[in-house]
Q: What sequence folds into this?
């Protein structure tokens, strides 16, 4: 799946402002059968996080261990490469979460 | 205005590799027409419920394609609302009758999924979600798994309780000759099946299916019907696309809203329902649905099903006599119409081995995305 460069450019203007924000895991799951561009990363957890400002976000959990998968676990947002791109696609970076 | 059902038919659901979408559509429509005793030329308009023909089949002019297949040149519309496309198509068709624009219309639900590989379908189905969910690498089972985690945690429900929902639906499917899976399963089968998105396992999930279903409805009261069934309510509500943007992860407010309005308009209580078809895309969906529809108390949906309270020949308010999405199959756009076909057969007393005794009032619950749209229909005889 290719992403329009224009769409990416528009999105990524917001991404930097979100780096380094803390929050707590509300719910988690482990994706074992992903869509095409995420297969190289599976299995990986996806979490819903309540951020410090009260806003909720959904994202992938990286650098994780089994013990991190619980409600209330503190996490911080980090910038990571999103997925495996097609050969001529632009590399896409986005917010993911890391356990604290 | 009374909206009567003149014909209702579904194809076999399953992995139908030797059948094209056109053939599927034709079979469902011709059987519905045959049942109604009408000719194609007596249909005023066509409404087609379909989600994926544009993404998977590169076909985005489906209304005309289906009209061509029926051999007519009438107004034809493709209606899309993820897995609720079928229910939404019917709602739009009913509005066409109520507006007085049409008198007799055909509503087709159709989906051809198994021509494509699993990665492609997983991606395509995520079109029902939001950008944020897609960028998180979430899948549809993943989003429902998040609901399942929240539900199990809040109400102390076990994975075995959820497994019982699939067991019930496979039992019902074993009585339905049109079902994709007609083999009963046990709790142990579900628990041992491979994990898809924790805590959901393969047998908690509805399959990828091909299938079509058609109904013919009319506002023309001069047409004589042997076993009349009519649509008493058709209600739609929407919610945020993303699960994480909602207040609750253990209730779908679109279902609560649409069903409350439907009950009120018909003047019935949830306990008056004899039989219903639930959108059990995952086991957790049926647990939450039976609470949102107010059949069970909050936190008791799964436990009541595990006790047999929604099982044929055992419980009251029988859920998914067709086998539901889990066992009958889930060709996404066809599901909402298949549900109407099943309830029609139940209310006519023509459901064979899976007949709910003395069924008078039936309900269908069709959901798109993770609850971003819900369509509720109430049928009576």
A:
């Amino acid at each position: 799946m290719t992403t329009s460069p224009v769409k990416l450019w528009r999105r990524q203007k917001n991404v930097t402002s979100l780096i380094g924000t803390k929050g707590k895991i509300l719910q988690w799951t482990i994706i074992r059968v992903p869509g095409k561009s995420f297969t190289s990363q599976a299995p990986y957890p996806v979490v819903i996080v309540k951020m410090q400002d009260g806003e909720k976000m959904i994202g992938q959990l990286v650098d994780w261990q089994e013990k991190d998968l619980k409600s209330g676990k503190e996490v911080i947002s980090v910038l990571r490469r999103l997925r495996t791109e097609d050969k001529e696609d632009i590399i896409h970076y986005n917010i993911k979460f890391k356990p604290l | 205005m009374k909206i009567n059902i003149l014909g209702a038919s579904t194809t076999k659901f399953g992995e139908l590799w030797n059948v094209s979408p056109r053939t599927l559509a034709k079979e469902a429509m011709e059987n519905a027409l045959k049942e109604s005793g009408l000719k194609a030329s007596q249909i005023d308009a066509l409404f087609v419920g379909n989600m994926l023909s544009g993404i998977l089949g590169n076909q985005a002019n489906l209304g005309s394609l289906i009209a061509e297949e029926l051999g007519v040149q009438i107004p034809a519309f493709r209606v899309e609302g993820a897995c609720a496309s079928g229910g939404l198509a019917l709602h739009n068709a009913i509005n066409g009758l109520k507006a007085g624009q049409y008198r007799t219309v055909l509503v087709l639900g159709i989906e051809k999924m198994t021509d494509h590989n699993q990665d492609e379908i997983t991606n395509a189905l995520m079109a029902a979600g939001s950008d944020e969910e897609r960028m998180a690498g979430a899948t549809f089972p993943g989003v429902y798994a998040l609901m399942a985690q929240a539900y199990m945690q809040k109400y102390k429900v076990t994975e075995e309780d959820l497994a019982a929902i699939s067991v019930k639906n496979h039992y019902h499917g074993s009585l339905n000759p049109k079902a994709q899976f007609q083999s009963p399963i046990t709790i142990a089968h579900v628990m041992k099946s491979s994990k898809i998105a924790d805590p959901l396992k393969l047998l908690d999930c509805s399959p990828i299916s091909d299938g079509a279903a058609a109904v013919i409805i009319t506002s023309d009261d001069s047409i004589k019907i042997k076993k009349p069934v009519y649509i008493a309510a058709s209600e739609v509500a929407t919610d945020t696309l993303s699960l994480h943007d909602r207040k609750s992860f253990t209730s779908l407010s679109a279902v609560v809203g649409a069903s409350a309005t439907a009950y009120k308009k018909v003047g019935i209580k949830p306990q008056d329902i004899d039989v219903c078809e639930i959108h059990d895309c995952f086991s957790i969906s049926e647990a939450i649905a039976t609470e949102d529809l107010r059949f069970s108390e909050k936190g008791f949906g799964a436990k009541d099903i595990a006790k047999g309270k929604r099982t044929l020949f055992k419980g009251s308010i029988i859920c998914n006599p067709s086998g539901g999405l889990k066992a009958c199959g889930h060709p996404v756009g066809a599901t909402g119409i298949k549900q109407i076909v099943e309830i029609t057969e139940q209310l006519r007393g023509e459901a064979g081995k899976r007949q709910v005794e003395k069924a008078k009032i039936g309900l269908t619950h069709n959901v798109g995305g993770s609850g971003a749209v819900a369509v509720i229909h109430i049928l009576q005889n």
